[in-house]
Amino acid sequence: MAYTVNKMARLAGVSSRTLRFYDKIGLLTPSARTDAGYRLYSDHDVARLQQVLFFRELDFPLVKIREILDDPGFDRKEALKGQAEFLEERAGRYRKLAQLARDTLLSLEGGPKMTNEDLFTGFDYDRMMEEQKQYEPEVQERWGQTEAYRISKERTANYTKEDWEQINKTQMTNLKELRDLFTAGVPHTDPRVQAVAEKAHKFIHDTFYPCSLEMFSCLGKMYVTDSRFTAYYDKFAPGLAAYYNEAIQHYCLAGD
Fold first, then answer.
1. CATH of the domain at 238
2. Could you give the residue ranges of the DSSP H alpha helices within 71-190?
3. How many domains does the chain have?
4. Is residue 135 within 8 Å of 149, Cβ to Cβ?
């Protein structure tokens, strides 16, 4: 089926102006035109537009979206799997925060009183602590006898909720900076990317345990060899885990 600009706009819930702009920058070029020069979109174009909108929901720049979709190796099914996983996690978090907002409003209107701690239930701290508990048995099995694990346990034993919130904030800031560089197409060897790797290395060293370049290199490799690490980083941008590992390996080699 062929869609005119107006029909395509109504179908996807975007403006005709947006479609014309996407055509202008090579992001969504219609498969055909009428004799009079009017754009006609095919089912293939419909599928591509859906991908454009999914990636926009994940905050990808238009230039990066075009690069991803034009890649001969692009796998729509794999992209959809990753997009679904990330959006489900985001939706779950928003549902928790929406409930927190309702509970807070109810408290203000004379309902059950909330403590100051209750006011922040559902933010990143809770998720981080749940994940830490989930992986603690495996961490003990794999690294429980190492000096780094012992030091990390000693350091973190006295961390407060505020400490963990600051840790999470720092990690998210660095990760978003890395994601923005990645989606902008900046090479992993670029000084800006290497600066993020350096900050990550120093953060681990200062916050958790003495982290040599060799240890940091091993950690980077885990981002691509352990599917859980890969899935975590790729939620922010497909391919980010591999990009991060490449940045870390370059950083470690340069530091030798």
1. 1.10.490.50
2. 76-108, 124-143, 147-157, 161-183
3. 2
4. no
CB atoms within 10 A of CB 19: 24
Cα–Cα distance, 75 to 71 (Å, whole number) = 9
* CA atoms of 142 and 136, how far apart (whole Å): 10
Q: Which amino acid is at 129?
A: M
Is the CB of residue 188 less than 8 Å from the CB of residue 243? yes
- The dihedral formed by the CA atoms of 67, 171, 57 and 26, expressed in degrees to the nearest 10: -20
Q: What is the CATH number of the domain that holds 60?
A: 1.10.1660.10
Tell me the pairing of strands 39-40 and 32-33. Answer: antiparallel
Give residue 53's domain range.
5-70
What's the pLDDT tens digit per position in 183-212? 999 999 999 999 999 999 998 888 887 788
Which of 26-30, 108-112, 220-224, 236-240 shows the lowest per-residue confidence on average (mean pLDDT)? 108-112
Gap between the Cα atoms of 17 and 152, Å rounded: 54
Q: Tell me, what DSSP letter sits at residue 146?
A: S
Residue 227 lies in a domain: yes
Identify whether 10 is part of a domain.
Answer: yes
SS3 41: strand
